Amino acid sequence: MKVEKARISDVPQMQQLINYFADKDEMLPRSLSELYENIRDCFVVRQGERVVACVVLHVFWSDLAEIRSLAVAEGSQEQGIGAQLVEACLKEAEELGITTVFCLTYKPALFEKFGFSQVDRMELPRKVWTECYRCPKFPDCDEVALVYHPEV
Fold first, then answer.
1. How far apart are CA 5 and CA 25, in angstroms?
2. Complete domains list, the chain, with CATH
3. Along the chain (152 residues), what's the average pLDDT of each consecutive run of 10 residues?
């Protein structure tokens, strides 16, 4: 299975996949409008026409991007698809010249395999004060913050 840029037609399936895990309190939900607005940031893995995995690389600033909404359908896990999606995000961040990539996750081990390091969430002030403060979990977020500094 290969990682590809998402298409408009993938958005409903991406939202269903993301919100399936959000309903289990494993990630934050995403609205259709948010996914459509950020379609250029999205990668997917398809099995035929079915989206089995997705991720978003959201650029915050000239030097900062977030990997978010990484979801792999339960029947497609443990096949390295999540790792392929993280690699695609890191490659794109490098191509864009972004010097810091971060994520907030309940599965830090996956990201640590790529050299991400755990940090205090308050080390990410642009994230915290532009988005986190609107989250229903704020200020009691229980996700793990990790940061990666690619070689650019």
1. 26
2. 3-148 (3.40.630.30)
3. 95 97 89 95 96 95 92 94 96 94 90 91 59 54 79 54
